[in-house]
Amino acid sequence: MHIAALVVDLEITNGRTLKDKRQVVRSLLDRIRGRFNVAAAEVGQNDSVRYAQLAAVAVSNERVHLDRMMAKVADLIESEPRAAVIGRDLEFL
After folding, report:
1. Amino acid 14: pLDDT
2. Closest residue by Cα to residue 31 from 65, 66, 60, 72
3. Which of the 8 DSSP states describes residue 81?
4. Among residues 60, 42, 39, which one has the least CA distance to residue 52?
5. In this predicted model, what pLDDT tens digit does every residue of 39-92 receive, in sequence order?
6. What is the distance between the alpha carbons of residues 32 and 36, in angstroms, rounded to a whole number?
7. 3-state DSSP assignment of residue 1
8. Looking at residue 23, what is its pLDDT?
9. Measured in whole angstroms, how far is the alpha carbon of residue 61 from the centre of its chain?
């Protein structure tokens, strides 16, 4: 059994209010959960208007599968025009 945890730090480029930030974060989390069979949540920078930290976690019997899936999750996050990726960390447990 392999577990992958991807943590991504984002800057919300047009975020002026927490509502603006929530729209971007909720949209990303819904797309990640819908497209990939992973758990995803906002895990940090909850009170910041311009910054967010998202995490996605998945379990599989093959590490290669997890590596590919998490790369696709990261690509989806990076394709969001309303946010810029400022940090990314992938860990295997």
Report:
1. 84
2. 72
3. T
4. 42
5. 999 999 888 999 999 999 999 999 999 999 999 999 999 999 999 999 999 999
6. 6
7. coil
8. 94
9. 22
**What residues have CB less than 8 Å from 75, skipping those under 6 apart?**
none
Could you read off the pLDDT of 12-32 as tens digits, one per residue? 998 789 998 999 999 999 999
Instruction: Count how many domains the chain has.
Output: 1
pLDDT at 5: 98
Cα 44 from Cα 51, distance rounded (Å): 9
Edge to edge, the sheet with strand 83-92 lists 39-44, 51-60, 2-12, 83-92
pLDDT for 46 equals 87
What is the CATH classification number for the domain harbouring 6? 3.30.70.1120
Q: Tokens for 21?
A: 């930030």
Residue 36: its H or E element: none
